[in-house]
Amino acid sequence: MAYPLLLAALLTLLVAAILQLLYRHYRYYSTYNLPPGHLGIPIIGRTFSLLRAFSTNSDDQWFRDRINKYGPVSMLTLLGSPTVLLAGPAANRFIFSNDGLILTQTSALRALVGRSVLTLAGVELKQVRGALQGFLKPEMVRRYVCKIDHEVRSHVELNWVGRDIVTVLPTVRRLALGIICSAVLGQEAAHFKESLCTDFVTLGKAILSFPVKIPFSRFSKGMTASAKIRKAITNIAQKKQESLLHAGHGAAGNDFITYMLILCSQGVHSLTMEDIVDNAMSLIVGAHETSSVLITFMIRYLAGEQDILDKVTKEQDEIASNKKPEDALTWDDVAKMKYTWKVAMETLRTVPPVFGSFRTATKDIEYQGYHIPKGWKVFAAQSVTHMDAQIFHEPHNFDPTRFEKFVPPYCYMPFGGGPRMCPGNEFARVEIMVAMHYLVRQFRWKIMCKEETYKRDPKPTPSLGLPIKLNIRSMP
């Protein structure tokens, strides 16, 4: 009898503590006009409900149900923080142009990637963002087209040619990792990308986990993978720093780490070696995951859209007809891939790699008559507009030609918007276009499991990795 009584006492104390927290909260914010909705149980709130929606590929419906119930502004608790959910074009404009909202991330992500562009704020964020924009500006990306071409050709020859069956997601994940590692780490990337590919996947899966280091949990595995990756990048960065000391002012910043070390020596930013490593790691994590998802779902869509595949192939064949087989693609070639990029844009609309983003209010903010208290999180579900029938006609249809028409501002948000546009969008465009050029010109494929579904883990992930039956294309 003692154990049931003890359990009942503990539950009573827990309920009392929760009620006390709720009382203090509502008393403190009694003067605020908070948005509709409920915070729910402290710390937990609607977290498990949202994570379950991600795992069952029902996240878009989860958002729409909430918007239908409370409107485009509502409050809840997510991942341990009181949060205001905002959705719609007006909300997107507000979020991406308001200086009182700083990009923030979950506690898990901060622990996993450290002091990076994903977690910094204020002057430090401006320094890092400015450096990233300088490194990834079109003039710099133009110089990388030949390197990307080489990476793609080598990858296709090694992982596609001669194969009957290819599991797309893990295969293109290795390609995307190789491309971004080459840009971030330079020639030292070759060994790095092969030895740590699995660790990057493990780290990526831990981003939306609870930051409690329980053995064998996602977060614990992610932290172990993060430590391995950080150690490897630190070794590379230290060697580059030593090389710069010997090279002097004649050194060229052809990779991200060298570029950041040179800027540091010039006093452009005040980041430490550890900060540079963290930013290199976060850049690799973010870039290779989103690119691999986009390539995977383009392949998935093209398998069932013969007319669209024929148009993409015709465009790529015309570009190749003006080149020798051994010639690498150029910046101008990529600029001609207009229809192929529309297919990529439509893929990003229907299956956005990033479902939304978290921001933190640095001061009390008012939006549409509601207050967002200082310190609260703002969850921007910007991709909700992608499936809005009032913005995109018949949104469930896959139609690249919809991007031949004007799309209203802040309605299509795969790369963010306004002054907070993703600085890597041009790099991503080149990477995707070069990869699709060689894949559609050399192969045809069939989906092996047409019933295969996908979930967010946290990026869109086919349950089987999208295995396809591969055939060499019969050239006309």
UniProtKB/TrEMBL annotation:
Q: Which Gene3D superfamilies match?
A: Cytochrome P450
Which InterPro entries does the protein's record reference?
Cyt_P450, Cyt_P450_CS, Cyt_P450_E_grp-I, Cyt_P450_sf
Q: Name one GO molecular function term.
A: heme binding
Q: Sorted alphabetically, which PROSITE patterns does this protein's record hold? A: CYTOCHROME_P450 (PS00086)
Question: Which pathway does it take part in?
Answer: Hormone biosynthesis; Plant hormone biosynthesis
Q: Where does heme bind?
A: C422
Q: Which cofactor does it need?
A: heme
- Record family assignment: Belongs to the cytochrome P450 family.
How is this protein named in the record?
Answer: Cytochrome P450
Instruction: State the encoding gene.
Output: LOC100838624
